[in-house]
Amino acid sequence: MQPVPYLFFNDTCEEAFLFYASVFGTVPQFMRVKGSPMEEQLPPEAANGIMHAHLDIGSGAINGSDNLSPDPGPAMAGCNVLITLPDVDTARAHFDKLSKGGEVRMPFQPEFWSPGFGAFSDRFGIRWMIDTAAAPD
C-alpha cells in the first residue's frame, strides 16, 4: 500500500497538473465532469471541470480534482506534498520551478537533516516541501 495525496483546487486543477507535469517530466491523466454521470447533477458551468486527475511522480503519484462543491472554501492549508529528490541541484531546481509565483515559507537551504530543504505554497495554494535524499555534510 502506498498513500497518495489527493489535492483539491478551485477551478485550477487542469492548469496545476499540466504545470506539475512540466516540472516532473510526466503526463497527467484527466477525467472531466462533461460526459460523466455527474454532469447531470452539477450546474452547467461545472461541465469543463476536472472530476479526477492523476500524475505519476517517480515511484509515487498525486491525484486531484476541482472542488465541485457549492462552497469550495480556501485552498488546502493543513497538508503538504513532500518530494525527496536525489541531490541538492535537482532538489533546488524543482524548488525554484514549483515555488515561482507562490509563497516561500522556508527558503531552500541546508538543514541538520538534509543538505537541501525548503517549503512553500505554490501559485495554486498547494503546500510543498522539497527535500534532498543525500545525507548532510
- Our estimate of the beta-strand percent is 35-45%
Assembly state of the chains shown: single chain
pLDDT < 50 runs, ≥5 residues: none
State the distance separating the first and last CA atoms.
33 Å
Strand order of the largest sheet: 1-4-3-2
Fold-level CATH name of the largest domain: 2,3-Dihydroxybiphenyl 1,2-Dioxygenase, domain 1
Strand pairing plus helix content: what structural class?
Answer: alpha/beta
> What number of structural domains do the residues give?
2
Average pLDDT works out at: 90
CATH superfamily of the largest domain: 2,3-Dihydroxybiphenyl 1,2-Dioxygenase, domain 1
The run of helices and strands is EHEEEEHEEE
**Total strands:** 8
Named at the architecture level, the CATH assignment of the largest domain is: Roll
- Write down the Rg: 16 Å
Q: Largest sheet, if any?
A: 4 strands, mixed
Shape: elongated
